[in-house]
């Protein structure tokens, strides 16, 4: 093990650590500048989509139900203009073994780790992914360590994150709990060096390829049920893997015209690495605190090149408020009989609003639900919010202010989406690339790569670079 364990030294040997912990040498895809061979990296997985479906089937992952939300569709139509109100479907990913779509992600990494002879796997995550990795490790007979960011400096932890930690432990994982700060990826990398375990990172090609089956399966089910492709699929967006994997699966299913829409809870003004702000949010994932920075600079993770690149696939990116998600969570339970956790319901709140923009014969699909539990229920989250000094009241959710006030709608017509400026985010991403590779001359292949990575074209990138020039 390397003796220099300083933060900078560990982060600087990230590629070396990943080579040992994932079996991928990221240098094989590098060009020495902005561009890298993204699709070549994705092929490093070594399995076809059908082979991944077989891998997932072995551990009972996937083949989850697609459910039409007839009562919510009926209400959307009641408050829409005549002829508006698309049919709303939801993919019940809570039916996976650990209760979320993250099992798809973890299944490929666990299978790969076992096939390569690793003794255990490690994941750095405060979300459902930890439980998914623990579950897949248990099925495959692997040891498991989950590194979580749990507490503020006073030792207070969000009920939802504590719930996830308990679930990881119940599934047999060792849980390393940290206070908020920059240590999450550092600690994970140190543990990978120390244990020699496989890195079940959220951001490797294995993790993203596992989600492709969700988009593909969803497309198959919609075609079988309705005889047509989904008009739009709405995806809760955080670190980018959910959007990337689902969109790639839709494309592999031939759904080139299906609109890919990302949705996040608006936490504008709160800093995720801030000790003060850490517990002043009521959602631990699927929010703009991850959604914006990971879209505008995806290579900020524990791997040298992130396989999750949402700007490649997003057609639209919207936000909803915390209060709107709490409202739709109760509506899903009390109108459709489905008690599910908050992450998928972020997309559902957005889908309920966007369905009212669409025609009645069109189809919008919410591509995930997640399990719920005591710490994830609205009652637990809202009680904790009040303890943290957050005002909780009924009213117009337009008055919601992250960190100060949660406003729960009084009527379903008050659920609305707010469009994020995708053009601005793409320009921000290009700027970040130029800054990161400032010592390299921008070449034609860099411009082509940036066009692909932003779902734009060469002229758009050239114009953006001209605007950025000093």
TrEMBL record:
Keywords: Pyridoxal phosphate. GO terms for biological process: alpha-amino acid metabolic process. Pfam families: PALP (PF00291). Its cofactor is pyridoxal 5'-phosphate. Gene3D superfamilies: 3.40.50.1100. The keyword Lyase does not apply. SUPFAM superfamilies: Tryptophan synthase beta subunit-like PLP-dependent enzymes (SSF53686). It comes from the Bacteria. Residues 60-366 form the Tryptophan synthase beta chain-like PALP domain. NCBIfam families: ornith_OrtB (NF040741). PANTHER family: CYSTATHIONINE BETA-SYNTHASE. This is Cysteine synthase.
């Amino acid at each position: 093990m390397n003796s220099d364990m300083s933060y900078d030294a560990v982060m600087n040997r990230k590629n070396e650590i990943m080579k040992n912990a994932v079996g991928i040498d990221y240098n094989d895809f590098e060009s020495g500048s902005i561009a890298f061979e993204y699709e070549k990296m994705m092929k490093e997985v070594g399995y076809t989509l059908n082979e991944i479906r077989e891998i997932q089937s072995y551990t009972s992952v996937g083949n989850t139900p697609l459910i039409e939300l007839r009562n919510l569709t009926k209400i959307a139509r009641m408050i829409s203009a005549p002829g508006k109100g698309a049919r709303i479907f939801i993919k019940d990913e809570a039916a996976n073994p650990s209760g979320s779509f993250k099992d798809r992600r973890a299944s490929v990494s666990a299978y790969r780790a076992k096939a390569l002879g690793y003794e255990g796997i490690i994941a750095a995550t405060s979300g459902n992914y930890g439980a998914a990795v623990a579950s897949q490790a248990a099925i495959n007979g692997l040891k498991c360590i989950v590194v979580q960011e749990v507490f503020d400096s006073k030792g207070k932890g969000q009920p939802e994150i504590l719930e996830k930690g308990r679930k990881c432990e119940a599934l047999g994982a060792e849980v390393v709990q940290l206070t908020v700060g920059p240590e999450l990826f550092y600690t994970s990398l140190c543990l990978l060096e120390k244990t020699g375990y496989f890195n079940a990172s959220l951001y490797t090609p294995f993790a993203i390829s596992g989600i492709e089956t969700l988009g593909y399966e969803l497309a198959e089910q919609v075609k079988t049920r309705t005889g047509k492709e989904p008009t739009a699929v709405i995806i809760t967006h955080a670190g980018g893997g959910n959007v990337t994997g689902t969109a790639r699966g839709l494309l592999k299913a031939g759904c080139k015209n299906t609109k890919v829409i990302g949705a996040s809870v608006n936490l504008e003004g709160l800093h995720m690495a801030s000790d003060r702000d850490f517990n002043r949010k009521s959602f631990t994932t699927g929010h703009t605190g991850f959604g914006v920075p990971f879209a505008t600079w995806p290579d900020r993770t524990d791997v040298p090149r992130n396989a999750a690149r949402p700007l490649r696939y997003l057609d639209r990116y919207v936000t909803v408020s915390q209060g709107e998600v709490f409202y739709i969570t109760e509506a899903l339970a009390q109108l459709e009989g489905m008690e599910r956790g908050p992450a998928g319901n972020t997309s559902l709140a957005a889908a309920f609003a966007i369905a009212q923009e669409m025609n009645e014969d069109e189809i919008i699909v919410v591509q995930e639900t997640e399990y719920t539990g005591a710490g994830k229920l609205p009652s637990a989250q809202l009680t904790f919010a009040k303890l943290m000094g957050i005002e909780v009241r009924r009213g117009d959710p337009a008055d919601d202010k992250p960190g100060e006030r949660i406003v729960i709608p009084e009527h379903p017509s008050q659920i609305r989406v707010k469009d994020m400026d995708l053009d601005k985010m793409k320009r921000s991403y290009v700027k970040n690339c130029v800054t990161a590779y400032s010592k390299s001359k921008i070449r034609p292949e860099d411009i082509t790569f940036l066009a692909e990575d932003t779902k734009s074209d060469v002229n758009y990138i050239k114009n953006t670079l001209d605007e950025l020039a000093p």
